[in-house]
Amino acid sequence: IGILKQFNKSKAKDKYKLIFIGEKETEYYQELIKVIKKLKLEKNVIALTNVERKFIPSIISNSYLYLIGSTYEEFSISLIEAMATGVPFISTNVGNAKQLPGGITLSNINQMHYNIDKLVNEKSQYYKLSEQGKKFAIENCTVDKCVKKLKNIILEV
């Protein structure tokens, strides 16, 4: 809902659609739908549920930005997925987001609308983040590389 409110404040809402993907229709989903209607964003926002996991990478790779408004994350695999497809992210400062290249990490979600508009309008910054994120994901986040790092850690202990 925080992301939705920030998207509503951005100028990007006139040019882009915001897509939410959730596992199922929860109470939070129902609240989200109410806020979408209250803000009159039915034409600008799509809330999907029951999307098969195999379709998520395609949806992400066809996105312009990847937004995370979580208040808690450990290690965001979804950020790595966005980075691997070259989609820059804007995330609250949760989990390891601040250590990852390829996006903007916010100390406060209320900064999100400004940063959405910034990346929509500053193409050079957008492409720089896209390239940094993709490069990092390819060089550091493949299964082979992660298994090798884990093996080295185990051998050191």
Protein described:
- The chain is of the alpha/beta class.
- It contains seven helices and five strands; from the N terminus they run αβαβαβαββααα.
- A three-stranded parallel β-sheet has the order 3-4-5, with helices on both faces.
- Strand 1, helix 2 and strand 2 form a beta-alpha-beta unit.
- The protein is globular and about 55 Å long.
Ranges where pLDDT stays below 50 over 5 or more residues in a row are: none
| Shape type | globular
Mean pLDDT over the full residue set? 93
Describe the main β-sheet briefly: 3 strands, parallel
* Helical segment count: 7
Structural class: alpha/beta
- Radius of gyration (Å): 17 Å
The termini sit apart by 43 Å
Strand proportion: 5-15%
Major beta sheet, strand line-up: 3-4-5
Helical content band? 40-55%
* H-E order: HEHEHEHEEHHH
Assembly status? single chain
Q: Count the strands?
A: 5
What's the SSE blueprint?
Layout: H1 2-9, E1 18-22, H2 27-38, E2 45-49, H3 56-61, E3 66-68, H4 77-84, E4 89-92, E5 103-106, H5 112-121, H6 123-140, H7 143-156
Parallel strand pairs: 1-2, 3-4, 4-5
Helix pairs in contact: 1-5, 4-6
List keywords for this structure.
157 residues; alpha/beta; two-stranded parallel ribbon; globular
Give a short summary of the structure.
The chain has 157 residues and is α/β, with parallel strands linked by helices. The protein has 7 helices and 5 strands; from the N terminus they run αβαβαβαββααα. Helix content is 48%, strand content 13%.
